[in-house]
Design a protein that fits this description.
two-stranded parallel sheet, single chain, 4 strands, mainly alpha
Protein backbone atom coordinates (compact mmCIF):
# COMPACT_ATOMS: atom_id res chain seq x y z
CA UNK A 1 0.00 0.00 0.00
CA UNK A 2 1.25 3.42 -0.93
CA UNK A 3 0.61 6.36 1.39
CA UNK A 4 -0.72 9.52 -0.20
CA UNK A 5 -0.10 13.23 0.31
CA UNK A 6 -2.54 15.38 2.25
CA UNK A 7 -5.98 15.50 0.59
CA UNK A 8 -7.42 18.94 0.00
CA UNK A 9 -10.86 19.66 1.42
CA UNK A 10 -12.15 20.44 -2.06
CA UNK A 11 -10.95 17.10 -3.47
CA UNK A 12 -12.54 15.25 -0.57
CA UNK A 13 -15.84 17.03 -1.14
CA UNK A 14 -15.68 16.32 -4.88
CA UNK A 15 -15.28 12.57 -4.40
CA UNK A 16 -18.05 12.54 -1.79
CA UNK A 17 -20.33 14.31 -4.26
CA UNK A 18 -19.51 11.72 -6.92
CA UNK A 19 -20.45 8.90 -4.55
CA UNK A 20 -23.71 10.66 -3.64
CA UNK A 21 -24.63 11.03 -7.32
CA UNK A 22 -23.79 7.36 -7.91
CA UNK A 23 -26.17 6.28 -5.17
CA UNK A 24 -28.95 8.55 -6.41
CA UNK A 25 -28.61 7.31 -9.98
CA UNK A 26 -28.61 3.67 -8.88
CA UNK A 27 -31.68 4.22 -6.71
CA UNK A 28 -33.47 5.97 -9.58
CA UNK A 29 -32.61 3.19 -12.01
CA UNK A 30 -33.72 0.65 -9.42
CA UNK A 31 -37.11 2.31 -9.13
CA UNK A 32 -37.51 2.38 -12.93
CA UNK A 33 -36.44 -1.26 -13.26
CA UNK A 34 -38.85 -2.27 -10.49
CA UNK A 35 -41.71 -0.48 -12.25
CA UNK A 36 -40.91 -2.28 -15.51
CA UNK A 37 -40.60 -5.69 -13.85
CA UNK A 38 -43.99 -5.31 -12.16
CA UNK A 39 -45.66 -5.89 -15.50
CA UNK A 40 -43.24 -8.28 -17.19
CA UNK A 41 -42.65 -11.99 -16.79
CA UNK A 42 -40.06 -14.50 -17.86
CA UNK A 43 -40.72 -16.27 -21.14
CA UNK A 44 -39.69 -19.53 -19.49
CA UNK A 45 -42.36 -21.47 -17.52
CA UNK A 46 -41.84 -22.03 -13.80
CA UNK A 47 -41.07 -25.73 -13.42
CA UNK A 48 -38.85 -27.48 -10.90
CA UNK A 49 -36.17 -28.40 -13.43
CA UNK A 50 -36.85 -25.67 -15.97
CA UNK A 51 -34.70 -22.81 -17.17
CA UNK A 52 -36.65 -20.29 -15.11
CA UNK A 53 -35.81 -21.99 -11.81
CA UNK A 54 -32.25 -22.71 -12.90
CA UNK A 55 -31.66 -19.03 -13.59
CA UNK A 56 -33.00 -18.15 -10.16
CA UNK A 57 -30.65 -20.64 -8.49
CA UNK A 58 -27.65 -19.36 -10.45
CA UNK A 59 -28.68 -15.83 -9.54
CA UNK A 60 -28.77 -16.67 -5.84
CA UNK A 61 -25.26 -18.08 -6.09
CA UNK A 62 -24.17 -14.81 -7.73
CA UNK A 63 -25.77 -12.84 -4.90
CA UNK A 64 -23.75 -14.79 -2.34
CA UNK A 65 -20.57 -14.28 -4.38
CA UNK A 66 -21.26 -10.53 -4.46
CA UNK A 67 -21.82 -10.32 -0.71
CA UNK A 68 -18.75 -12.41 0.12
CA UNK A 69 -16.64 -10.56 -2.44
CA UNK A 70 -17.55 -7.07 -1.27
CA UNK A 71 -16.91 -8.10 2.33
CA UNK A 72 -13.53 -9.55 1.33
CA UNK A 73 -12.58 -6.31 -0.43
CA UNK A 74 -13.48 -4.29 2.66
CA UNK A 75 -10.77 -6.14 4.59
CA UNK A 76 -8.26 -4.33 2.37
CA UNK A 77 -9.94 -1.02 1.54
CA UNK A 78 -12.04 -0.27 4.64
CA UNK A 79 -11.39 3.34 5.67
CA UNK A 80 -8.37 3.66 3.35
CA UNK A 81 -9.91 4.65 0.01
CA UNK A 82 -9.03 8.34 0.30
CA UNK A 83 -5.81 7.88 2.25
CA UNK A 84 -3.92 5.09 0.48
CA UNK A 85 -3.39 3.43 -2.86
CA UNK A 86 -4.41 -0.12 -1.99
CA UNK A 87 -2.72 -2.55 -4.38
CA UNK A 88 -2.91 -5.84 -2.48
CA UNK A 89 -5.30 -8.79 -2.53
CA UNK A 90 -8.24 -8.16 -4.87
CA UNK A 91 -6.85 -4.69 -5.61
CA UNK A 92 -3.71 -6.24 -7.05
CA UNK A 93 -5.64 -7.89 -9.91
CA UNK A 94 -8.31 -5.25 -10.62
CA UNK A 95 -8.55 -1.59 -9.61
CA UNK A 96 -12.24 -1.63 -8.67
CA UNK A 97 -13.10 -5.04 -7.21
CA UNK A 98 -15.94 -3.63 -5.08
CA UNK A 99 -17.64 -2.47 -8.26
CA UNK A 100 -16.94 -5.75 -10.04
CA UNK A 101 -18.72 -7.64 -7.26
CA UNK A 102 -21.57 -5.12 -7.54
CA UNK A 103 -21.92 -6.07 -11.22
CA UNK A 104 -22.14 -9.71 -10.18
CA UNK A 105 -24.73 -8.89 -7.51
CA UNK A 106 -26.80 -6.88 -9.97
CA UNK A 107 -26.82 -9.77 -12.44
CA UNK A 108 -27.84 -12.12 -9.63
CA UNK A 109 -30.68 -9.79 -8.64
CA UNK A 110 -31.95 -9.64 -12.21
CA UNK A 111 -31.77 -13.42 -12.51
CA UNK A 112 -34.28 -13.74 -9.66
CA UNK A 113 -36.94 -12.96 -12.25
CA UNK A 114 -35.97 -16.09 -14.19
CA UNK A 115 -34.88 -14.00 -17.16
CA UNK A 116 -31.60 -13.68 -19.05
CA UNK A 117 -32.76 -10.26 -20.20
CA UNK A 118 -33.31 -8.98 -16.65
CA UNK A 119 -29.94 -10.35 -15.51
CA UNK A 120 -28.02 -8.83 -18.42
CA UNK A 121 -29.89 -5.52 -18.20
CA UNK A 122 -29.11 -5.22 -14.48
CA UNK A 123 -25.45 -6.05 -15.15
CA UNK A 124 -24.98 -3.53 -17.97
CA UNK A 125 -26.93 -0.71 -16.30
CA UNK A 126 -24.75 -1.07 -13.20
CA UNK A 127 -21.63 -1.26 -15.37
CA UNK A 128 -22.56 1.96 -17.20
CA UNK A 129 -23.24 3.86 -13.96
CA UNK A 130 -20.01 2.73 -12.32
CA UNK A 131 -17.99 3.41 -15.48
CA UNK A 132 -19.04 7.06 -15.27
CA UNK A 133 -18.28 7.21 -11.55
CA UNK A 134 -14.89 5.52 -11.94
CA UNK A 135 -13.69 8.12 -14.44
CA UNK A 136 -14.36 10.87 -11.92
CA UNK A 137 -12.69 8.86 -9.15
CA UNK A 138 -9.66 8.29 -11.36
CA UNK A 139 -9.27 12.03 -11.89
CA UNK A 140 -9.41 12.54 -8.13
CA UNK A 141 -6.83 9.83 -7.50
CA UNK A 142 -4.54 11.16 -10.21
CA UNK A 143 -4.66 14.66 -8.73
CA UNK A 144 -4.04 13.25 -5.25
CA UNK A 145 -1.39 10.59 -5.87
CA UNK A 146 0.16 11.68 -9.15
CA UNK A 147 2.67 9.26 -10.66
CA UNK A 148 2.09 6.64 -7.97
CA UNK A 149 -1.52 6.20 -9.02
CA UNK A 150 -0.73 6.50 -12.73
CA UNK A 151 1.74 3.61 -12.41
CA UNK A 152 -0.89 1.52 -10.61
CA UNK A 153 -3.48 2.48 -13.24
CA UNK A 154 -1.17 1.43 -16.05
CA UNK A 155 -0.39 -1.90 -14.40
CA UNK A 156 -3.78 -3.06 -13.13
CA UNK A 157 -6.98 -3.25 -15.26
CA UNK A 158 -10.08 -1.24 -14.35
CA UNK A 159 -12.78 -3.95 -14.31
CA UNK A 160 -11.45 -7.17 -15.90
CA UNK A 161 -9.26 -9.00 -13.34
CA UNK A 162 -5.81 -10.20 -14.33
CA UNK A 163 -5.01 -12.91 -11.79
CA UNK A 164 -1.39 -13.10 -12.93
CA UNK A 165 -0.85 -9.84 -11.03
CA UNK A 166 -1.91 -11.26 -7.66
CA UNK A 167 0.11 -10.11 -4.67
CA UNK A 168 -0.66 -10.15 -0.97
CA UNK A 169 0.80 -9.78 2.53
CA UNK A 170 0.89 -12.09 5.52
CA UNK A 171 -0.97 -9.70 7.85
CA UNK A 172 -3.55 -6.94 7.45
CA UNK A 173 -4.79 -4.17 9.71
CA UNK A 174 -8.55 -4.72 9.65
CA UNK A 175 -11.28 -2.37 10.84
CA UNK A 176 -14.08 -4.72 11.95
CA UNK A 177 -16.76 -2.03 12.13
CA UNK A 178 -16.26 -1.09 8.47
CA UNK A 179 -16.14 -4.73 7.39
CA UNK A 180 -19.43 -5.47 9.18
CA UNK A 181 -21.02 -2.37 7.67
CA UNK A 182 -19.96 -3.41 4.18
CA UNK A 183 -21.36 -6.91 4.76
CA UNK A 184 -24.71 -5.51 5.94
CA UNK A 185 -24.87 -3.09 3.01
CA UNK A 186 -24.10 -5.91 0.56
CA UNK A 187 -26.90 -8.03 2.00
CA UNK A 188 -29.33 -5.58 0.38
CA UNK A 189 -28.81 -7.67 -2.77
CA UNK A 190 -30.78 -10.45 -1.09
CA UNK A 191 -33.90 -8.26 -1.16
CA UNK A 192 -34.22 -9.19 -4.84
CA UNK A 193 -35.32 -12.71 -3.84
CA UNK A 194 -38.55 -11.84 -1.94
CA UNK A 195 -39.28 -8.94 -4.32
CA UNK A 196 -39.13 -11.22 -7.38
CA UNK A 197 -41.12 -13.99 -5.68
CA UNK A 198 -43.73 -11.47 -4.52
CA UNK A 199 -44.19 -10.05 -8.01
CA UNK A 200 -44.51 -13.54 -9.50
CA UNK A 201 -47.14 -14.49 -6.92
CA UNK A 202 -49.17 -11.33 -7.61
CA UNK A 203 -48.97 -12.00 -11.34
CA UNK A 204 -50.02 -15.64 -10.87
CA UNK A 205 -53.06 -14.49 -8.87
CA UNK A 206 -53.89 -11.87 -11.54
CA UNK A 207 -53.39 -8.96 -9.14
CA UNK A 208 -50.72 -7.67 -11.55
CA UNK A 209 -51.20 -7.85 -15.33
CA UNK A 210 -48.40 -9.30 -17.46
CA UNK A 211 -47.98 -6.86 -20.33
CA UNK A 212 -44.95 -8.50 -21.93
CA UNK A 213 -42.69 -11.52 -21.56
CA UNK A 214 -38.92 -11.52 -21.91
CA UNK A 215 -36.43 -14.36 -22.39
Amino acid sequence: MNEMPQITRRSSLDIAAVQSVRKLVLYALGVVAFAVLLFSHSLWPETDLGLHESLEHVGRALLLVAIAGRTWCSLYIGGRKKATIVDLGPYSVVRNPLYVFSFIGAAGAGAQFGSFTAALAAFFITWIVFSIVVRKEERFLTETFGETYLAYKARVPRFLPDFRLWRNVDTLEVRPQLVVRTFIDACVFLAAIPVAEGIEMLQADSFLPVIWTVP
